[in-house]
Design goal:
alpha/beta, 4-stranded antiparallel beta sheet, 1 helix, extended
Length: 133
């Protein structure tokens, strides 16, 4: 009797794990069937070359929706963002540094089913009291 119960339990667990694996695989294939664009770089001070921590707001200019709000690394100034490439749209990046300097960068994201990378280092004129550099 114990052998039968153990066999049934193993069968149930195996089927559950197989089902979870297939669901995860299907989700991953669906999520990445359209291309993505990896945007990464460094935020730094134009005069000193020092790395800068900044808040980065990513906005889809076609829909005017905020996609994400993130920060660049406080030590290295590095940031990374993954943009969907399932349609053509403008991506606006608004950077706000700790001293409230604001910098706006606009990228064109083109519809593409492939993975691609954009390296974009952004220089900021700190302590400059203008809205956009």
């Amino acid at each position: 009797m114990k052998t039968i119960l153990v066999s049934i339990l193993i069968l149930v667990i195996t089927n559950s794990l197989f089902s979870i694996y297939n669901s995860t695989k299907l989700y991953a294939e669906t999520a990445y069937s359209n291309g993505v664009t990896l945007i990464q770089g460094r935020v730094y001070d134009k005069e000193t070359g020092a790395n800068i921590e900044s808040k980065i707001i990513y906005i889809n200019m076609k829909s005017n929706d905020t996609i994400q709000i993130a920060k660049s690394n406080s030590s290295t100034g590095e940031y990374t963002f993954v943009a969907n490439s399932n349609a053509n749209y403008g991506l606006k990046m608004i950077l706000i540094t700790n001293d409230n300097t604001i910098k706006e960068v606009i990228l064109n994201i083109k519809e593409d089913d492939n993975y691609k990378e954009i390296k974009l280092d952004i220089e900021v004129n700190q302590n400059q009291n203008c809205l956009f550099n």
